[in-house]
Amino acid sequence: MKALIERLKAGIDLNAGDIGVAVALLLSDTTEDSMKADFLTALHRKGESVEEIVCFVQQLISRAVDPLIDPKNLAGPMIDVCGTGGDGLDLFNVSTTIMFVLAAGGAVVVKHGNRSVTSQCGSADVLEALGAPFDLPPAHLKECAERLGLCFIFARQYHPAYRALAEMRKRLARENIRTVFSLLGPLLNPTRPARQLIGVFSSRLTSVFADVLRRLGRERAWVVHGLTETGDGMDDISTSGATILAELVHGKVISGVIDSRWLNIPPGALDDLRGGNAAENAAHLEGILSGEIKGAKRDLTLVNAAAGFVVAGLARDMTDGIGMAREQIDSGRALEKLRRFQQFRATRPA
To answer: Is the full-model pTM beyond 0.85?
Structure first.
């Protein structure tokens, strides 16, 4: 590990063999946490290359629990919607809210997520507050995806190797130190979904992530980074300012910009988009899906769900996708998806 740290400090990128050794040492109980932290800090300061990120994903996915989900047995196109977190804005759980809108519109959402590391409320936290099954074992997860058209893949459960890093990651997060693990969450879905909508905390990462997804064999993906009215960044499509987009389609990466004003969506102030703790965010999610919450939070949900419909191949463009998203909420179908998920009980043994 010391030799790898020295190479990183010298600005040298690591190869696949190096990453294999590094991951084994990072996940070992015999490697001191201080050494792990030094390695991850040195890697981040150098700047993680596309090759290094791809190799980390491949190493960690190979150690993941198999969720048993076969896209051929699903009723619609399989998609994950997930952000890196780390934008520091404490918005309501946007990607968790849109999973029910997308599932109501015909996509099969296999959402990968975790408890909060950098915000007040992670996707697992808000689902737990809603009384929804956020920690299903593989056989039940498979049944949920096939019956309901959605499921939640709890990262902590499906990546048991992460347990060796949990305390160190929390400590680094408290010190506001980012590492490669700040990037990997949306890339580690063990179902390897062909389609993904990913929000990232830095504009630089849009093209990096799109290239990583290309290398991982994804069919279509959008990687987005939104801007607020004050110039802060968010790991969602923004309604407060422009959004930087990198699109992976037909094996090519295309860069662009989205502005929700072009879509007849009024600007939303950042203060109107903030969330809170798990109970508060659960109320926001239910309120949006039930139609009780209008305004900025609903608008942010609409534009992000619209992007999901486009990536899933169910909408031609963002305008079409916004119409689909409105229909799922206004008809009550999105709320019904949430209710069915909350009431899900497996019929097969685990």
So the answer is: yes
